[in-house]
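Researcher: Next entry in the queue.
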Amino acid sequence: MIGDIYYSIGILVLFSVLSTILKFGKIYSIKEWIEKYEKVIGRKPTKKDYRTKKEYSISESNKILSVFEMIWILFGLFSNSWYIFLSFLILSSLLNILIKPIKWTIAYKIIVFTFILSKMSLYLYLISNHFFLHIETYNVILNQIFK
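Model: Structure for this entry, 147 residues:
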């Protein structure tokens, strides 16, 4: 019952990631602008500093959806698929550290977009596995490692 509620919320997270994919270019551009603005001005931009109201709206909604997604992932650490969520958090942190030197390059953009697509695929698997597939992923992984 609790798992059904949790993974139903995961469907909303899945849609938020899909939204991020569909608006990737715009979100990427806004994040790049924010970082450059902070570097030049020395503070975070306020609502009136954004180039358009739409950019401010996209930026704020992306922040809110990211926080919502992170909370969902953290609660995932208490699910039966905790090892997947923990692996995802570790991989995400390592990736952020490793690609920092190439920030705002085309390679960075490709890596981030690929990561978001992978994240969406992982969430889709977790949700469909809970509701339909019922694969014991942990045992499958162990069998592949110790084969």
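Model: The helical segments are 2-22, 24-41, 53-76, 82-99, 106-133, 137-145.
Researcher: Noted, moving on.
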